[in-house]
């Protein structure tokens, strides 16, 4: 029998966004590896799913990969989830999958890695922003220090829209840099997608800095930033 590693997307806020297939897979696998076991416990409890969660969180991808391989070798079916959204997109996953795939090649056809797609803040932001983004560059999280200024220059020169994730601690700093390097570009901030305070705010960096100065309580939550193309 082929046993499987499922890469399962989970909601980015609104729990109704989980897919029927994700629920079925999370119920039927033998073990779930999660980015944070406490977050996973809450998700599973909400849906009444009793599948065991591995103690080893996936933030240590090396160790998680080793343990996942041991479990797969023992014939178990496994699901990998992150705290929210799609594993591997600015979340643990890629290294684990590479390791499992390398190992799987040796034992084929006994292991299969399957995508169970669903929510991602990236896709949700692009879909709701209403910008023309048939082509875009996704940068994940911007570096905090090294290479940051170069990246802002690249964003300024980009012929494509640029999308990245940002935290509430850095959003104002990032807008200051965009004001410096891309003062004319249109920026769209998608905040708290699928949650109660979801909103999409657009304007130049100066407009957005003024907005957050006026509503400091909105410098909170989760953000996706989209910078329009040149
Ligand atoms: N793997 C996830 C995905 O597929 O969306 C992304 C994980 S990354 C660690 C978390 C970042 O995604 C947050 O800091 C934020 O920038 C963005 N994000 C996640 N949920 C979001 C939401 N509901 N609204 C806006 N941005 C969100």
**Biggest β-sheet strands, sense, barrel:** 5 strands, mixed
Write down the Rg. 20 Å
Rough outline? elongated
Low confidence ranges: none
DSSP summary: helix tally: 8
Per CATH, which architecture of the largest domain? Answer: 3-Layer(aba) Sandwich
CATH homologous superfamily annotation of the largest domain: Tetrapyrrole methylase, N-terminal domain
Distance from N terminus to C terminus (CA atoms, Å) equals: 53 Å
Number of extended strands: 9
| SSE order, one letter for each helix or strand | EHEHHEHEHEHEHEEHE
Q: How many domains make up the coordinates?
A: 2
Strand content is: 15-25%
CATH class of the largest domain: Alpha Beta
CATH fold title of the largest domain: Cobalt-precorrin-4 Transmethylase, domain 1
Q: What share of the residues lie within helices?
A: 25-40%
Bound molecules: S-adenosylmethionine
InterPro entries: 4pyrrol_Mease (IPR000878), 4pyrrol_Methylase_sf (IPR035996), 4pyrrole_Mease_sub1 (IPR014777), 4pyrrole_Mease_sub2 (IPR014776), rRNA_ssu_MeTfrase_I (IPR008189), SAM_MeTrfase_RsmI_CS (IPR018063)
Enzyme class: transferase
Catalytic activity: cytidine(1402) in 16S rRNA + S-adenosyl-L-methionine = 2'-O-methylcytidine(1402) in 16S rRNA + S-adenosyl-L-homocysteine + H(+)
Function: Catalyzes the 2'-O-methylation of the ribose of cytidine 1402 (C1402) in 16S rRNA.
């Amino acid at each position: 029998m082929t046993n499987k590693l499922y890469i399962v997307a989970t909601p980015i806020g609104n729990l109704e966004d989980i897919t029927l297939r994700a629920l079925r897979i999370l119920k039927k696998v033998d073990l779930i590896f999660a980015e944070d076991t406490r977050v996973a416990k809450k998700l599973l409890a909400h849906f009444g799913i009793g599948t065991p969660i591995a103690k080893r969180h996936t933030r240590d991808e090396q160790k998680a990969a080793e343990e996942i391989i041991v479990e797969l070798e023992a014939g178990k079916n496994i699901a990998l989830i992150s705290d929210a959204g799609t594993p591997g997109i600015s979340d643990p996953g890629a290294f684990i999958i590479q390791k499992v795939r390398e190992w799987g090649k040796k034992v084929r056809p006994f292991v299969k890695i399957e995508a169970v797609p669903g929510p991602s803040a990236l896709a949700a932001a692009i879909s709701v922003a209403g910008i023309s983004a048939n082509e875009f560059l996704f940068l994940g999280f911007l570096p905090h220090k090294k290479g940051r200024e170069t990246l802002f220059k690249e964003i300024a020169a980009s012929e494509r829209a640029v999308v990245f994730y940002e935290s509430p601690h850095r959003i104002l700093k990032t807008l200051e840099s965009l004001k410096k390097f891309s003062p004319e570009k249109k920026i769209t901030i998608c905040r708290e997608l699928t949650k109660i305070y979801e909103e999409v705010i657009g304007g130049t960096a100066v407009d957005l800095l003024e907005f957050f100065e006026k509503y400091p309580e909105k410098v909170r939550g989760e953000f996706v930033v989209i910078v329009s193309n040149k």
